[in-house]
Design a protein that fits this description.
Blueprint (H helix, E strand, L loop, with lengths): L8 E6 L4 H8 L13 E6 L8 E4 L2 E12 L2 H19 L5 H16 L3 E12 L4 E4 L4 H15 L4 E3 L9 H11 L8 E10 L5 E6 L2 H4 L1 H9 L3 E9 L2 E6 L3 E7 L11 H26 L7
Helix pairs in contact: 2-3, 5-7
Keywords: Cytoplasm, DNA recombination
InterPro entries: RdgC
Protein name: Recombination-associated protein RdgC
Length: 301
């Protein structure tokens, strides 16, 4: 059983205080139970395995954010709104205006909120102190932004920026084209692997995926698609010990360590969690710094 998971990740450059100072700040923004009329609530939480608010690991530390969100299906809302609107229009013998329907919809949502199922999500963030990298273990940009917003709220002022690379100058599309036409490795230090996803916006979003031997067998088709305006949305890369999909937004998907971690004490779960977290922070740091160098990322001024 793997404990400290990083399956997906969004990375920020961030200047955070040391673990002790941060813990003091975080105590001001702890998670508390969601109320009957709230749609969502987020706050810092204790790591359920280590029992710590801030867990020190090799090279940095980790924090945990809990988010509770009411699940209110849009189909349920729409059906109830339609029922109420139909009843009112039947009694009044006139059509309701859009603003009146909006008021009814809001009232329905508020009422459903009181009895809605609550979905709980735990978000883990890993901080590399030396390189000031904040790695939020999620593939969702809105969820990663919640973590950053909580840190800003807790600390008062935190300098953060997302890491983006211009697709025109240095990005995935340009490098894949170079690889297919010249055979040169597109990412120094990384091995091109077995998955490509192309996308193009039009009247409808078009997505094409190539995997395994298709990439070699259909090179000319892929080049033709790039010439026709498709861009590379995802590509799988390998380096020593880790495999992952990199997106055009510099997000990481389907992260997988290529070997298991050995432990001195399998039964000490807090120890195992810290060990796994430290190893995964090391690999993610290596990957991010390597790609930043290869893709010639320049920090915001």
């Amino acid at each position: 059983m793997k404990l400290a998971q990083i399956k997906n990740a969004i990375v920020f450059k961030a200047t955070l205080p040391n673990a002790d100072l941060l813990e003091g700040h975080m105590k001001e923004c702890m998670f508390s139970d969601i109320s009957e009329t709230e749609f969502a609530r987020s706050g810092f939480a204790v790591n359920t395995i280590t029992g710590e608010l801030v867990t020190p690991i090799t090279g940095g530390y980790t924090i945990t954010v809990r988010r509770d969100e009411k699940i209110i299906p849009s189909s349920v809302v729409n059906k109830e709104v339609e029922t109420r609107v139909a009843a009112i229009e039947l009694n009044s013998e006139c059509k309701l205006k859009r603003k009146d329907k909006a008021i009814i919809k809001n009232n329905v949502i508020v009422e459903l909120c009181k009895t809605a199922f609550v979905k709980t999500t735990y978000l883990f963030a890993y901080y590399d102190e030396a390189n000031k990298l904040l790695i939020v273990a999620t593939g969702s940009k809105p969820l990663s932004d919640i973590v950053v917003s909580l840190l800003v709220k807790a600390c008062g002022s935190v300098k953060t920026e997302t890491i983006n690379v211009s697709d025109v100058k240095h990005g995935l599309t340009t490098r894949l084209r170079t690889y297919l036409t010249s055979g040169l490795e597109p990412f120094e230090g990384f091995r091109f692997s077995d998955f490509i996803q192309l996308g193009r916006l039009g009247d409808q979003k078009e997505i094409i995926k190539y995997s395994g031997s298709e990439i070699d067998d259909m090179q000319q088709e892929i080049i033709d698609k790039l010439d026709a305006g498709f861009i590379v949305e995802k590509v799988r890369l390998d380096m020593d010990g880790i495999s992952f999909q990199l997106t055009e937004k510099f997000h990481f998907k389907a992260i997988n360590l290529l070997s298991d971690i050995n432990y001195q004490n399998e039964d000490d779960l807090p120890y195992r969690w810290r060990q796994e977290a430290g190893v995964k922070l090391f690999f993610m740091r290596t990957v991010v710094l390597g790609l930043v160098s290869v893709l010639e990322y320049k920090a915001e001024k």
